[in-house]
């Protein structure tokens, strides 16, 4: 009996070892990714300790005094907190409601294009803006929309209307930010959805056609259900970065006339952390953002699983 038990215990261990040996090169390929995440994602998490300290660069992390939750109390009682939270949430909701569906729609439209040369040309054109830096994007927006010789405003003026201060008006700030994101990232965002659509079994379309379904019915009853899990997973991941509205774009777009509607946590952290040297306070803001993102990701994942989707974990 004892011999049988010991043999049963050794066999799984031996089979696991054999599995690892057999797939050793796959683990070697995995190693750079693991090293990257350990060095650049997990090791820097040590720095969140300064959110609970009165951090002094010359004293270091080990020598700075602990202050507990003082910086978080300062954050929620800061007069600017309501403005920052409101601006960040509004821009984040704009991205979820208006930007997130666009790559899906564009991918569905591209999938329906049958002329491959034209399809490849359109894909190339809409992918290119992703590789343009935000500095150049903001520069292009300035050339087109400034009131001092901007192309759009010159056309408006030639029609006899008053010029519109797109770049200096608080009322136009969020719309401009959203339009720039859509122009720059919508095409690139279609890649994952096009890959998901390419994985749909062609027999499903053939069966739908045999049942008399037209192109729209095939899209609604075959394509969309087939990529639903991909949409849900990407939406959950996007909610995990809900408060990350993008520092560079907003920082370059801010000015004295639109700061009340454009200042977000990312730009506020830059001003306080780097320009004023309040490292502990800015770290507390970053940790607050991370906690909110984690809660939203966990909540969205739980809701997705309750609705029968896979989720991210």
Automatic annotation (TrEMBL):
- At the top level, the lineage of the source is Bacteria
Q: Which GO terms describe its biological process?
A: transmembrane transport
One Pfam family named in its UniProt record: BPD_transp_1
The residue ranges crossing the membrane are 25-52, 89-110, 122-144, 219-237, 279-304
Sorted keywords for this record are:
Membrane, Transmembrane, Transmembrane helix, Transport
Q: Which PROSITE patterns match?
A: ABC_TM1
The membrane-topology field of this record reads: Multi-pass membrane protein
GO-annotated cellular components: plasma membrane
Q: Where would you find this protein in the cell?
A: Cell membrane; Membrane
Q: What's the chief localization of this chain?
A: membrane
List, alphabetically, the SUPFAM superfamilies matched. Answer: MetI-like (SSF161098)
Q: Where is the ABC transmembrane type-1 domain?
A: 85-300
Is the rRNA-binding keyword given for this protein? no
Family under the similarity heading: Belongs to the binding-protein-dependent transport system permease family.
The protein, known as: Sugar ABC transporter permease
Q: Which organism is it from?
A: Paenibacillus thalictri
